[in-house]
Amino acid sequence: MFLHGTQTVNEEGHLEIGGVDVTEIVAEYSTPTIVYDMALFERRAKGFVDTFEQLGVKAQVAYASKAFSNIALYQVAETLGLSLDVVSEGELYTAVRANFPAERIHFHGNNKSESELRYAFEVGIGCIVIDNFYEIDLLRKIATERNQKMNVLIRVTPGVEASTHDYITTGQEDSKFGFDLKNGQADRAFQQLKEDKHLQFLGMHCHIGSQIFEVDGFVHAAEALMQKMHTWQEEDHFICSVLNLGGGFGIRYTEEDAPEEPHVYVKAMTEAVMKLAEQYKYPMPAIWIEPGRSLVGDAGTTLYTVGSQKEVPNVRQYVAVDGGMTDNIRPALYDAKYEAVVANKMNAPKGTVVTIAGKCCESGDQLIQGARISAVENGDIIALFCTGAYTYAMASNYNRLAKPAVVFIKDGRHQLVARREKLEDLVRLDEALPQDWLEERN
Ligand SMILES: Cc1ncc(COP(=O)(O)O)c(C=O)c1O
Ligand SMILES: N[C@@H](CCCC[NH3+])C(=O)O
Fold this sequence. Notes:
Blueprint: E1 8-9, E2 15-17, E3 20-21, H1 22-29, E4 33-37, H2 38-55, E5 59-64, H3 71-79, E6 83-86, H4 89-97, E7 105-107, H5 114-123, E8 127-130, H6 133-146, E9 150-157, E10 179-180, H7 185-193, E11 199-205, H8 215-236, E12 242-244, H9 262-280, E13 286-289, H10 293-296, E14 300-312, E15 316-321, H11 330-334, E16 340-342, E17 350-357, E18 366-374, E19 381-385, E20 405-410, E21 413-418, H12 423-426, H13 435-441
Parallel strand pairs: 4-20, 5-6, 5-13, 6-7, 7-8, 8-9, 9-10, 9-11, 11-12, 12-13, 15-17
Antiparallel strand pairs: 1-2, 2-3, 4-14, 14-15, 14-19, 16-19, 17-18, 20-21
The structure holds pyridoxal-5'-phosphate and lysine.
């Protein structure tokens, strides 16, 4: 069994996170609840920031907040000196509500609406990452109308095929994201932007995909972008001041996963850029990165309570918990793998292999197939590890299940940062029909 961050087993044989017994969390907040080990989040953030410092490179580490967007997390990210990557008006609004410094916010998205872009101008964010020609036109219109400058990068697809799930690769030519580097789109975007009065073209961005383990893909992408920047240097005497190399650094969900430490990816990419900068006599650009999963993924643990069990003789044993695909769609969507423990029986011998199933009306609502956990009975607590990224953020109310509570833990203290949805939350958007509508039907 592999424990993460500050996780330990206490004398009572219970899982502890950040010095707090998880049975205490369950007693106070019920289940399902996602807890974040904030010391681990801080360690991950510091790991990225320190890497750049050691390399002596000007940088911004932007938390890709799509992984888990929440006011309290943005507050902590701010204190750690992180920047923020948002992809919608909703994430931007969350950042505004968290008083996140606007100049450290970067706005992404392949179909930002005019009203979203106007909001970004109003808030005065630090940079917009332009995805397509339509967006260039929209931005020009807004910036001219408002007579307001805005820093921009262009997102490019460097033609790197990353080996991860097909749904989460983004760097290949056939992608809905960005301007292609090889077919001339990136050059055309650059030509349109390089002398714009309001849109201040800082440079390029790429993101090759998510949950990637190999260092090479990141290095190749960084090199491809530097080569393009060199062409613009030679042909247009233009120097980019920023190179944003995205996120995507893989984490260890199960013992079979073998990622590098997050800073290894960053160091390798940055050194590749430094080398080419020297070769091209190119002023070293500031390096921006956008890790999401590798900042929050392994800091999160979901606590569930065991309910019913079902044995299908000679086939499998189902252990059902009080959440499932509504609070973690990843196993159903990507066939993602997780590990779990019985958090109130950490010292019990491992039992048979079971399938941990959710409570939704979908056969595919299974959190782990083939989990080797100790024997459980109803009321036991299952802790599913590494659920900090793309779980709560992708949660739904399917079957009208309530979204779970989210709790931060640090140094023996726990703090609720998202309350569990109540029944009235589940109908808050519904409008009852007026009586005359119903009467007409009868
Ligand atoms: C543009 C962009 N930046 C950053 C990220 C964060 O990726 P990850 O959570 O894998 O670090 C994503 C998601 O894949 C993304 O699309
Ligand atoms: N939601 C995906 C990652 C998408 C990354 C965003 N571009 C996952 O859970 O793995």
